[in-house]
Amino acid sequence: MSTRRSSPLGRFEEALSRTFGATMAVLRRRDSALVVAGTAAGYLLVYLYALGHLAPGLGGFDVTVVPGALAKFFRPELGPFSFTPVVQVSAGPVTYLFSLNTVLGLGLAVLVGLNLGLTYLAWRQPAACGVGSSSSGFLASIPAVLSGTACCGPVVLILLGIQASGIVVTAFQFLLPVAVVLLLGSLVLVGRQVDPTRL
Question: Looking at the 3D structure of the chain, how many domains does it have?
Fold first, then answer.
């Protein structure tokens, strides 16, 4: 065993390399790629709905762009991870608001999808993954689902009649970065155990 591999940095680099290989293996397999795509699409829809950026429409088709859209695209609306919508798309029964929240939600959706794709792969091929039937990807994706409340969490509390203190409202704002860290950590945790050559 080389000194580099036994060092913490060497082990971390090897874990990242194996995670990348496992991720590519997940995307190459048709069944696990469908799990990733389906999970990511479903998560993104739920995320946008939770933020109020995907709602029932009034019919018809219309696209409205706010003046100065580029300047407002990165402007926070209610908190650090809530951005101002700059485009409204009405398409029949659905109204969609485009903002930087969509980009953040897409990033989270991909991470949730990859985690569940790796978990699915570990369940289907436990010998190659060395983890048996792992559920860590699923468990790590729970904070990501909750991060959809980062902006509308206080509104939900008000609707339920719960008075939220400043501490509770502030806690909602930290769900997004916590979810990203947990999802990345889970991806590496499961991915480092996968041997792509055995898949």
Answer: 1
